[in-house]
Amino acid sequence: MAEVEHQQLGASGLGPLGERPVLTVSELTQAVKETLELDARFQNILVRGEISNFKHHTSGHMYFTLKDEKSRLKCVMFRSHNARLRFRPEDGLKVIAGGRLGVYEVAGEYQLYVEELYPEGLGALHLAFEQLKAKLQAEGLFDPARKRPLPGLPRTVGIVTSPTGAAIRDMVSVLRRRFPNVNILLAPAIVQGDAGPPSVIRALELLNWRDDVDVIIVGRGGGSLEELWTFNDEGVARAIAASRIPVISAVGHETDFTIADFVADRRAPTPSAAAEIAVPERAKLLQDVRDQEERLRLAIQKRIRQLRESLGYLTRSTALTRPLDRIHQLRQVLDELVYRAEATFRHGLESRRRRLEALAGKLDGLSPLGTLARGYAICRVAATGQVVTRASQVRPGERLKVRLKEGELLCKALGAENGIDQPSLPME
Amino acid sequence: MSEEKVLSFEEAFSRLEQIVRRLESGEANLDESLRLFEEGVKLARVCSSRLDAAEGKIQQLLEKPDGTVEEVPFELPGTESS
User: Homologous superfamily of A24-121 in CATH?
Assistant: First the structure.
């Protein structure tokens, strides 16, 4: 065909132009443009190909070439259309592009004006998810070293979720059950649709401005990938990463992973599970504290018993040179113990204090002062203070001090009555 | 006293456990035993007070058109049975 035309041209030669019209480049281009653009077959087409030479211009428009093994097709996707793309087109990506064919007169090129773009194979959302995940991972946002520890005992739990969904109900119920007096501060957010990301980002901001929030749960109940999309948004991921307060992500049911899950300090499979992670069981902690208190009490009681035993031993062993001094010293320690324990127990631990007092009472029974009360006396040499246990320790005429229950007598020895090496010294 | 202010529940509790172990070991002399006991009772009190610290409020933040943020009580929809 081409050959035939050529021959015809050759036959008529390059001679006189004759009656044939001469077009300008613009006129021809315009004619082609009209032909192409008025042809309904080219106005709503889908084309399969691989992206190459992808450029995202600063104007916001995207320029690329679609190619297959044999051909290339120039493509442009204006900002108004690509703004809603959920994935990033890139070289090598196999796509299906939808749009209309047109002519760019300036370059004399026909091109596809792309209005829709779909990745082949994976769904667009899925691809977008993988792309964002790879990007944030490369930035180190999922780095385990970035994860902050959660507070063991938060006073206030911040929650970012819908105020009307099942998620908030579940979380409040679990939080209250585990820790009835924990404070809950809800920053209400829209958790699906296009309004989701800015709303969640704002709610995170509001909680981060507070100084009383110890941990944040951000999430919603389960849904389709589309419904959970707010939590695969780059802005939301960055807001979670930037949060000053540790964040627990709680999106959907067990199997749904979102970008928010990767970037959060802790991922919970469901909102209820997040609430369990956020607060400990108060009743159990209280029991732990009481157990320790009980062990503390038993240990100190054992110590007091030991003290009492050694005191009893000392009381009986009058062979020691200054038994009273030693006993006084120990009594003083015990008094101090009772005093300090009383002060310690003043806060509602009355029964333990009474036990201590009872112990102190028993101690009194063992003290020599109790013996004195029963009519016994302690006799000491006035000059030396030595306790007199044998008549032979005293010479006639020596001064003695006799300790009674109340007061002391000053006496003089007259003689001994049953002395072996001394005559009897009746007292004066 | 000022020590009590900065101790978290976990810190106070773990110190309390240490003290109980030390006291139970019987290795502490009388004077140390007394000090440990006193500190232990104080720590148990710190622990309890930490557990009592929160007031059990449920609030929500509302952003008003003028840009101010208000904190108001939050009630779960459909739970006003009492």
Answer: Nucleic acid-binding proteins (2.40.50.140)
- Domain-by-domain residue ranges, chain A? 24-121, 154-280, 283-371, 377-428
Question: How confident is the model over A19-45, as pLDDT tens digits?
Answer: 788 899 999 999 999 998 998 889 889
Q: Give the model's confidence band at B1: pLDDT under 50 very low, under 70 low, under 90 confident, else very high.
A: very low
pLDDT given for residue A376 in this prediction: 78
Identify the burial level of A338 via C-beta atoms within 10 angstroms of its C-beta, where 0-12 means exposed, 13-18 middle and 19 or more buried: middle
pLDDT at A303 over 70: yes
Query: Tokens representing B36?
Result: 């440990």
Q: Do B24 and A188 touch (CB under 8 A)?
A: no
The residues in A 190-219 lying below 8 A from B, measured between CB atoms, are: 202-203, 206-207, 209
The closest of A392, A324, A335 to A360, measured between CA atoms, is: A335
Chain B residues within an 8 Å CB radius of A288? 13
Does the distance separating the beta carbons of B76 and A169 come in below 8 Å?
yes
In 3D space, the residue among A258, A279, A91 whose CA is nearest the CA of residue A183 turns out to be: A279
> Are A171 and A208 within 8 A, CB to CB?
no
Give the residue with greater pLDDT, A348 vs A328.
A328
How do the domains of chain B map onto residue ranges? 1-77
CA distance A89 to A181: 51
Interface test with B, best of A292, A308, A330, A332 (most B CBs within 10 A): A292
Evaluate whether B36 touches B17 at the Cβ level (below 8 Å).
Answer: no
pLDDT tens-digit readout, A309-341: 776 666 666 555 555 666 677 677 777 766 666
ipTM: 0.83
Select B1-77's CATH number: 1.10.3470, 3.40.50, 1.10.287, 2.30.30: 1.10.287
The greatest distance separating any two alpha carbons of chain B, rounded to the nearest whole angstrom, comes to 67
pLDDT band at B82 (very low <50, low <70, confident <90, very high): very low
Q: Cα dihedral sign for A132, A135, A138, A142?
A: negative
CATH number listed for the domain at residues A154-280: 3.40.50.10550
Strand A183-188 with A94-104, pairing = unpaired
